[in-house]
Design a protein that fits this description.
- The complex is a heterodimer.
- Chain A contains 7 helices and 3 strands.
- By secondary structure, chain A is mainly alpha-helical.
- Chain A has a domain of 86 residues.
- Helices cover 49% and strands 12% of the residues of chain B.
- In chain B, 48% of the residues are buried.
Chain lengths: 297, 285
């Protein structure tokens, strides 16, 4: 599509959309949109609600919350800005992307400080005592992460960057140790145990034969063995062994297909959730949660 | 079929938008039937005696809320209906507001009439950094990671946690997981070594990782929004007050799934037909 054609298509769409939004949002007696109503919280309510609770427009004492209404507008416009990338790259998309990165980085920094450094370092440091041998031991243990953290930051200095390798070695070593044991137990030994299943499954009463459970167990065992055969490269994949490995490839392909289908389902769920926000909270076209009185009442 | 090979992909985006948006605007609903893996989780919560201690870890962030919030809500509702006592936590820093929202919207909102009290009927432990190390630590000592709840009250002062030393004092673990740290780490550091009952809710991307752990290391899976919808249906059949559209977020989102999947299948078939038709006869194999 040329730029001129694109402009001819998009300008009318933008103007019509703006008129639609103006009609819904601003015309007195119109359907309305994107307004968030709140009511004063009861005295015993949690302080985290900042004294106001979400309310239906027809509840007594309900008033429009300018801050929450602005929040809905910001969320809706940023959503549309991200969606606009599907048409083509544009400044609105890049702005929304930059906002997302900046906000996320700031959030993680603040969360890391208040939920990590403060409870795990600063508070223990402030409570250190040196009276008895036990207290000295605990205090030295408390100082250890501080010292390791400072050594880790040493690499930012112009000289002595090698000092950062010591805490890194500590992190890698401990992490490898922790992960190794858990993988061996949960993903190796237990997985072998999960594969040891009866190929002929009896009914719960022990008299009959459960065909589908037997087929399922057989397919599972066949899949494990054939996939292992495919990944065993010390034998040529020819003859009967090659055919078994070929079955393993089919199992792998079906697994990848199932994973892809799952991924598609996940992405559609996210799209549906975002569109529901736009249609419900922003445009008031639907009201699945019954948050507003029916139109005309 | 040449037009198909030169089709601007934005038409496909538009078709997908319509496939997802129209069922939502028309409030279309499709029937769901709970599958065994979902029923395993449902039955486990149902069979636990009233007042059992259930840990629910919200291991996801707002970016996965569209998929996981419905199942989190359904599981919390089920615990409220059964009067189970809930220990809520998250291994993700941006999961904290999601735990708080579940408390304010469901426990203190929808079930306000039950008068569930913080500290006695539920505890919000909040977030602790450390990823899987947090699980490994609370497997032996809850207080080593969480000396207080999220509001700063010592666990010994809360009736629910005063008698909880570690994970083994809980009756059921649930991880609602979008990645790392999540269901895999709960299997590796809690359910496998301690032989604790663990149920998981997973995003669609992560769900395939969970199936090999069935049945010995996981008792059931709620796989993506489909699993959540099945759980909502099972809940609605047992508790008719929950069989209303307002309490079935995931069921509501299954109609867009159906139409979007049909569109994708049609596009895959169409694309392959176009490729076959345009292939030169006797061409390169």
């Amino acid at each position: 599509m040329t730029t001129a054609t694109s402009s001819r298509v998009w300008w009318p769409i933008c103007v019509l959309s703006a008129a639609f939004l103006l009609w819904r949002a601003a015309v007195p007696g119109g359907p309305g949109m994107a307004r968030v109503y709140v009511k004063p919280a009861p005295a015993e309510a949690d302080a985290s609600s900042a004294g106001w609770l979400a309310a239906r427009p027809d509840e007594s004492g309900a008033v429009v919350s300018p801050a929450r209404t602005a929040g809905v507008w910001v969320a809706a416009l940023l959503t549309l800005a991200i969606f606009s990338f599907l048409y083509k790259d544009n400044p609105a998309y890049r702005f929304a992307e930059a906002v997302m990165v900046g906000v996320s980085a700031a959030y993680f920094m603040v969360a890391g400080f208040w939920d990590g450094l403060v409870p795990k370092l600063f508070i223990p440091l402030s409570q250190m005592e040196w009276g008895t041998v036990g207290e000295v031991g605990r205090s030295l243990l408390t100082l250890t992460p501080l010292v390791l953290g400072m050594m880790l930051l040493w690499r930012l200095l112009p000289r002595g960057g090698w000092i950062a390798r010591w805490p890194l070695a500590f992190i890698v070593g401990t992490y490898a140790g922790i992960r190794l044991l858990s993988f061996l137990e949960a993903d190796f030994v237990s997985q072998i145990r999960n594969t040891i299943v009866p190929l002929v499954v009896r009914d719960t009463d022990g008299l009959g034969f459960d065909l589908w459970a037997s087929v399922r167990n057989g397919l599972m065992l066949g899949g494990v063995l054939s996939c292992l055969a495919y990944f065993f490269f010390s034998m040529d994949h020819r003859g009967w062994y090659g055919r078994v490995a070929r079955v393993g490839v089919w199992y792998l392909m079906i697994t990848f297909g199932a994973s892809f289908a799952f991924t598609v389902m996940g992405r559609i769920a996210l799209l549906a959730s975002r569109l529901e926000f736009l249609f419900d909270d922003w445009l008031w076209l639907i009201d699945p949660l019954g948050k507003r009185p029916p139109p005309g009442l | 079929m040449a037009w198909l090979q030169t089709l601007d992909r934005r038409w496909i985006f538009l078709a997908m938008l319509l496939a997802v948006a129209l069922p939502q605007l028309l409030q279309v609903r499709v029937p769901e039937k709970p599958t065994p893996l979902v029923l395993n989780v449902f039955r486990k919560i149902e069979e636990l005696p009233e007042g059992s201690r259930v840990l629910i870890s919200f291991d996801y962030s707002p970016s996965s809320e569209g998929e996981l919030a419905p199942m989190a809500a359904a599981l919390v509702r089920h615990c409220c209906e059964k009067r189970h006592r809930m220990v809520l936590m998250t291994l993700w820093p941006d999961g904290k507001p999601l735990v708080e929202r579940a408390i304010s919207r469901i426990i203190e909102g929808e079930y306000a009439a039950l008068g569930l009290q913080a500290g006695r009927d539920y505890v919000n432990l909040g977030y602790r950094p450390g990823k899987e190390v947090v699980i490994k630590t609370i497997a032996t000592s809850l207080r080593a990671e969480f000396p207080t709840d999220d509001a700063g009250t010592p666990l010994d002062d809360l009736p629910l946690t005063a008698e909880v030393t570690n994970l083994q004092d809980l009756d059921l673990l649930i991880s609602i997981s979008a990645g790392f740290p999540g269901l895999k780490e709960w299997v590796q550091y809690a359910s496998s070594p301690l032989k604790l009952p663990l149920a998981v809710g997973a995003t669609a991307v992560q769900a395939p990782q969970a199936y090999p752990y069935i049945p010995r290391q996981l008792l059931g899976i709620l796989a993506a929004v489909k699993g959540a919808a099945e759980y909502e249906v099972a809940l609605g059949e047992r508790y008719p007050n929950l069989a209303i559209p307002e309490r079935q977020d995931a069921v509501r989102r299954m109609a867009p799934q159906l139409w979007a999947h049909l569109l994708i299948i049609a596009l895959i078939v169409l694309g392959n037909v176009a490729a076959l038709v345009s292939r030169p006869r006797g061409g390169v194999r």
